[in-house]
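Weekly modeling sync, notes
Attendees: S.R. (lead), two postdocs, one rotation student

Agenda item 3: backlog of single-chain predictions. S.R. asked that every request posted to the team notebook include the full sequence so nobody has to chase files. The rotation student volunteered to paste the first one in as an example of the format we agreed on. Action items at the bottom.

Example entry:
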Amino acid sequence: MERVGLYGGGALILIGTVGMGLLEIIAGAPHPVSGEGQVVHETLISLSVRSYTILLGLLLLAAYGVTNLVTKPPEDTSI
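Predicted structure, as returned to the notebook:
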């Protein structure tokens, strides 16, 4: 169960940041400039998909941390 929380959360964060970012670079997502000089950002993968992937990874890591804190008593009780 620990490995699912740690590896799953870390993998989702890495896929959302590094994996999808490299895919955008390799695919060569265009960044055309409009008539007013604004950069129009067109993405291959929606920004909401990337955001939710990273958020899901963070929530998975947080859930692992909370369950680990609740289920395991501290080893050093002298504090």
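Discussion: group reviewed the output briefly. The chain is about 65% helix and 0% strand.
Action items: rotation student to repeat for the remaining queue; S.R. to check formatting next week.
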